[in-house]
Amino acid sequence: MFYMQRPGRLRFEYDPPATLLIVADGSVVAMRDTALRTTERTPLRSTPLNLILSENVDLERNARIIRVSRSGPWMMVSARDRSGQTDGTITLQFYGADAQLRSWDVIDATGARTRIALSELTQPASFDRRLFRLEDVVTTSRRPGR
Fold first, then answer.
1. Rounded mean pLDDT of the chain?
2. Under 8 Å CB-to-CB from 12, ≥6 apart: which residues?
3. For 125, which of 66, 67, 96, 131 is 20 to 30 Å away at the CA?
């Protein structure tokens, strides 16, 4: 499950056997691995996610576009943070005439690639703010209210 509320908030929950939970609270991205009992924290502004979690996404202003390509109905835009504060790149993959965001790849400072593919999207009016609290990352790997 993936939850996103701009500006700056997201939550990735994975089904077992995965043990990773990722939460951004607006300023920090925390990655909790319950199997290893570790939590890593990185300032949001230091991650490529910062480009897509801002209140108004403006790649022309906030990003350095590395590459734009098309393949049939797909358009791919690869970008880096213009300020230089972010390590890594993000490639956004848009589909169709209305350019719906369908997936993105992040390559972090170590060269590791993470692909996120979106499906079955819904847009609730609001989320429980506890979804994006870092305290939940430390104490539990389950969504509040479960």
1. 85
2. 1, 2, 20, 21, 22, 23, 116
3. 96
Q: Which residue has the tokens 């700056």?
A: 8
Prior bond of 17 cis (ω within 30°): yes
Cα separation values, 5 from 19, 50, 66, 91, 111, Å: 23, 12, 26, 20, 27
In the chain, where the domains are located? 2-139
The DSSP 8-state label assigned to residue 46 in this structure reads: G
Please report the DSSP string for 52-100 in residue order: HHSSS--HHHHEEEEEEEEETTEEEEEEEETTS---SEEEEEEETTTTE
CATH number listed for the domain at residues 2-139: 2.50.20.10
Task: Decide: residue 5, CB within 10 A, 0-12 exposed, 13-18 middle, 19+ buried.
Answer: middle
**pLDDT attached to residue 140:** 46
Q: Which long-range contacts (CB under 8 A, 24 or more apart) does 117-124 make?
A: 118/2
Contact of 121 with 98, CB cutoff 8 Å: no
Q: Sheet containing 2-5: give its strands across.
A: 2-5, 9-13, 20-25, 28-33, 38-43
Q: For position 134, what pLDDT does the model report?
A: 67
